[in-house]
Design goal:
Four copies of one chain form a homotetramer. The first copy, chain A, has about 325 residues and is an alpha/beta fold. Chain A is built from twelve helices and 14 strands. In chain A, strands 12-11-7-10-9-8-14 form a seven-stranded mixed β-sheet. A six-stranded parallel β-sheet of chain A has the order 3-2-1-4-5-6, sandwiched between helices. In chain A, strand 4 (about 70), helix 4 (about 80-90) and strand 5 (about 95) form a beta-alpha-beta unit. The longest helix of chain A has 20 residues, at about 310-325. Chain A is globular, with a radius of gyration of 20 Å. Chains in contact: A-B, A-C, A-D, B-C, B-D, C-D. Strand 13 (about 260-265) of chain A pairs antiparallel with strand 12 (about 250-255) of chain B.
């Protein structure tokens, strides 16, 4: 019944799972009913803080009859099977990105998703950031005319461990994928991908044949061009900027300040403290909004939750970027 | 016992009382035990949302034996009696500013406060704003050298109703008092006050012989000068800025943006959305921090809660400003 | 004949005289015909660079028959006599501020100036700064509604030598006078002056009973209030800001950057190089515009050159500020 | 003799030729001796203002024996022959970019340039912009560590006439070429070029098979990546920004403001007037500095004037970008 809080099963209690648990506890429309992690101590710690029955077995969550939806925040390799299980159980799922690193596995699941009617949403949290969402809405309202160039800067504060890089699927599938979805948030119909990657500072990337620095260029069917600049490190803190250029002007999203204070001295004027450190701070509001929007999707209300197809499209673009960067060609894509 | 949440009695459930009720509910160190308002429906609405026993009689709160502290958010005229009752009951109190509009009543209570040993704190919330507190700490750390000039801009979004003006005690006691305390947050020992007031736009102020625009200048015993600029209205939203000038530089607090987005067009570049609307948004963090600091005071831990004497000093300065603006003289003050 | 370049006699070849000489050389509407300084080597150096006949005797300039106007940039004590001499010779004069440190001497000259019909202009260069002039024009056009508060920050990079302070007439007549004129540029009819001064860092000011830090508050007949903040030093460079507040918004003039470059690092973001050093850089455009406007005055064209009366009004306000700061009273003034 | 002003022959008196003529007149180290344009009225207008002997025949300039250097500001198609003539006459030349639209013609001249010893410089004026030059110097000094990503935004205010597009050589050779040189100013050894172009708004570009919007990505031998964003139009005025990213931080060049004034209202805060309109305003200082540096080159002093080889390298990169955008491949280049 839709006016009761939605009972959630949380699968995966790592850093991002904990964020979602806190959101569920804070949102009067949601409760945390089950908490699952093969590392059961992690699940227990979350349940102690935010409530819920603990298990190390995801199938127990689906079988419990006590969850209205699941949030899948487990390792990427488990996503496809968990989504399949959710569909089997008829339970809507919000799954963290990416669906999988292998497009073949994603495509294999696609018909099931399409035919099932079970709501499956993807965790592209940045779509729910108030600043990005506002720029998109203002662009859509024609404030700068037809979008001609979209520029996204996205740099993490520090490179992940080499062991993470080894299984990450590479910078495009692991990191750029968020920006590729952001590109599609503004321009869904991307038709061409070109990418260039370099390895200039990170031993982990070098060891595993990955890039630590990448620039990706996309063309939309409208002719608009998207530029994405990525780096695995950033001295200034989490660097998350966006700029939409059109015939009537430019809308920009600046980095998020941590203070209203600036200092001017004989050597530097108007200097401000560094930006927010990383995604948990920068996108705190976005995670909460993402959850609210998924609740609307589950309840059959109008919702802008990113879909399984959005997740698949982002992976297709990441694959194309990887190929472009490796083979030095531009890659035509068909997302339809 | 100090590790239990502090049980609060909230007296007064208007706008600011509701803010404190929400803070108490959100802070694991506090609970809302009793809620009091002569307008008992207001108290009940707060209790329904955040818990607590409802009453329309403050003496019931003090007699309940169920509160470890009270928060006084009732009309100004009731503050002195309620503080006296709290002291009588041996219950620490956090009282909204100002203590009273009549310094004689404040002075009459002073010996009782001093001799009682019951912690009495004043609700000068802005001291707890992260930006102002950071500038003060950086000034204290010598980052700009000895403070020579402090400039405070403080303008409300819109003039209050004429009926409010009638009983407000005038702009200096009602509005500037916050800025006078902010001045003392940086420079406690103010020795001279000069003020100029004008009535340029507000019919309510004109009707009741009040000013709608005022500039107050203070001198500290160190020789440092403070400038305070007030207006009862502000088209750009709540205008709350501060600038500390010293021999080595300037620390500035900017207005709080509501968005990271800016727009550049053919007519205006780098334009941003308006600032936060008013104090509930601008000082949300400060109210929570103020409560935490008062809890520390009640628990006998080191605390920076503003004291009854701080409240008295601000009122003395407001009285001096009022006299200066009316009599066109600078007024020497002794806060000691 | 008005289409020929105006032939100037320059009296005084110190720092500011040299600025004017360069302006005259660069402006096709003016030429430097005579250069006068009792320190004749100074005059010769200027003439070598920009042309003109050299003399150490101002009366030779007036008697030469070769100048259409004089620019008086000699020490303040000589201004009244030189203006009188210019009027006697029927030669228009642009005189640096202040007219004199003694209002009695200014008043004594006033009837002569008024009856003579010889154009006498005062060198309040800041009126010609594009930023200040733009704000004034936009205020006059109603962009922010009726002006309610004008805030001027004016700080020199470093205190002058003690010997200069000794003969300067004090901070109000020497330094604030520029800001007092700026106040009158926006609000000509000032009716009340209140000032507070402190001596917090400068031994020279202390030695000569002057202030190094001052805040001046003015009231206009409209009720609008003006705040002026002065300091004899400024670590960040020449600090020259202005802010006009009205019911519809705020117009601000920022300090002048020296570069388009900013640096963001792990400790400071968006830090920029210091501001322009002092008035020669900051007001370079203003000096040239001031000269052009005076040429228009001399030629009988519509001109906004500040008048002898403007110079007198600024001195009256400075005197009132000095008295207010010393006697701790607000001072009513009548500029009419 | 090097202490005399350098006597210049100016060939071409269009918009950019006039800028150089004014620079020559203003710089005490240079004089304008000859002015040449087949449209002799243009040459005469320049000579009337800034001096010099007028001719419609460039060979007369070289034969005059009265010029120490030439500045070639004639149409692109004439550059190669004029440089050849200058070398033949043993007269140093500063030639506007590009050398030619056909790399074969440039390469044919290369051996002559190399063996002649006659100083030939290219007019990449942006290298002399104080902001860009400052960032480059600070990067070179290690302020942000090794450069990892350089981002250049370069947009003209409005598309040129279709007739200009027809003979321009395309956006990469005509417009991007400046940015390609800027990339090489920071990272001379570019090894790979990838570009994407679109035609989204300009009928002239569409008519002539050109792009109006382009994104170019370069890789340097160090692995650093460069992103260039171009558009043939820009509502906000001339959009010229640069951002250098390294492991220790970011150096940014902002657009050039036209005023120190900002306006805050109920709908937009901190809005500023539009940026400088186009290159004549934005790069006024750069043109003068470019000329001074060329004088140093001619006099055999240490000079940073861009060379013929720099001009050739930029054209090679533009050709590679054109090919990349057309054939959808990344293009390896060898500039050595």
């Amino acid at each position: 019944m839709t006016t009761q809080p939605l009972r959630f099963g949380l699968i995966g209690t790592g850093r991002i799972g904990q964020v979602h648990a806190a959101s569920m506890a804070a949102d009067p429309d949601t409760t945390l009913a089950w908490v699952c992690d093969p590392f059961v101590e992690g699940a227990r710690a979350v349940a102690d803080r935010f409530g819920g029955t603990v298990t190390d077995d995801a199938s127990a969550v689906f079988a419990s009859g006590e969850v209205d939806a699941v949030l899948i925040a487990s390792p990427t390799a488990t996503h496809v099977d968990l989504i399949a299980a959710a569909i089997e159980a008829g339970i809507p799922a919000l799954c963290e990105k990416p669906i999988d690193l292998d497009i073949a596995r994603v495509d294999a699941l696609l018909p099931t998703v399409r035919s099932s009617g079970v709501p499956i949403a993807l965790g592209f949290n940045r779509r729910f950031d108030p600043a990005f969402a506002s720029v998109r809405a203002r662009v859509a309202a024609g404030e700068i005319g037809d979008l001609e160039h979209l520029s996204i800067v996205s740099r993490d504060p520090a490179a992940p461990p080499a062991a993470y890089i080894a299984v990450s699927g590479g910078i495009f599938r692991d990191m750029t994928i968020h920006d590729l979805d952001m590109a599609r948030f503004f321009l869904p119909d991307i038709v061409e991908v070109s990418a260039m990657g370099s390895t200039v500072f990170d031993p982990g990337a070098r060891q595993h044949g990955d890039f630590d620095t990448a620039v990706t260029t996309l063309r939309a069917s409208s002719g608009a061009i998207v530029s994405i600049s990525n780096s695995r490190h950033s001295a200034i803190g989490y660097d998350q900027r966006l700029e939409a250029f059109g015939p009537r002007g430019i809308l920009q999203v600046a980095n998020a300040p941590t203070s209203l204070v600036s200092l001017s001295t004989a050597t530097v004027v108007e200097g401000r403290p560094p930006y927010q450190d990383f995604f948990l701070e920068r996108y705190a509001e976005a995670y909460a909004a993402e959850l609210r929007e998924f609740v609307r999707l589950v309840r059959g209300e109008p919702s802008t939750s990113p879909t399984f197809e959005d997740g698949r499209a982002a992976l297709l673009l990441a694959d194309a970027a990887q190929r472009s960067a490796t083979e030095h060609v531009a890659v035509a894509v068909e997302l339809g």
